[in-house]
Amino acid sequence: MNKKLFSFISIILLAFTLQSCAVYKATEQPGKKDLSVLNRGTDREKVIAELGKPVHTSMKHGHRVDVFSFVQGYSTGVKTARALGHGVADVMTMGLWEVVGTPIEGIANGTENKVKVVYKHNRVERVIALAGKQAASKATG
Predict the structure, then answer these.
(1) Nearest C-alpha neighbor of 47 from the set 109, 118, 136
(2) Quick one: pLDDT at residue 137?
(3) How many C-beta neighbours within 10 Å does residue 115 have?
């Protein structure tokens, strides 16, 4: 086997070995949370079911207060489109896209959010954004 053919086969094998790192990372990104559970009147159980267990719970002035910390991720459609894009780029560049695609997926892994939810009779009364863009858009107090 000549040296050029061996190099070519090695590059192709390396490309297929590396291929899918960015694709896999894109599909494993966190899912999108339904922030409509932060609307006034939503039952506390629904909020917890969507955002997870609160990082802190207390009682203030007769009202339960929960603090949630969560990552707002991506919809299934967005994750699929990203994975397909990485796959096409991998094939077109014989795997070299992984040098760019994998770090991109490492950085673009959702947005950290933190909210304080005040309940009245176990229903959302107010939402106070503590961190994050999505949280701020849902703040009511």
Answers:
(1) 118
(2) 59
(3) 25
Three-state DSSP state, 114: strand
How far is residue 91's CA from residue 19's CA, in Å, rounded to a whole number?
8
**Listed residue (114, 110, 108, 112) closest to 128, CA to CA:** 114
Residues of the chain with pLDDT under 70: 1, 10-20, 133-141
Average pLDDT, the chain: 83
Q: Roughly what angle, to the nearest 10 degrees, separates helices 76-92 and 98-107? A: 160
Measured CA to CA, the distance from residue 135 to residue 128 in angstroms comes to 8
CA angle 33, 104, 17 (to 5 degrees): 110
What's the first-to-final CA gap in the chain, in angstroms? 72
Whole-number Å distance between alpha carbons of 136 and 99: 35
* pLDDT value of position 16: 55
Distance separating alpha carbons of residues 140 and 36, to the nearest angstrom: 12
pTM greater than the 0.90 cutoff: no
| Structure-token match 């991109």, residue found | 104
Sign of the Cα pseudo-torsion (12, 90, 84, 107, in order)? positive
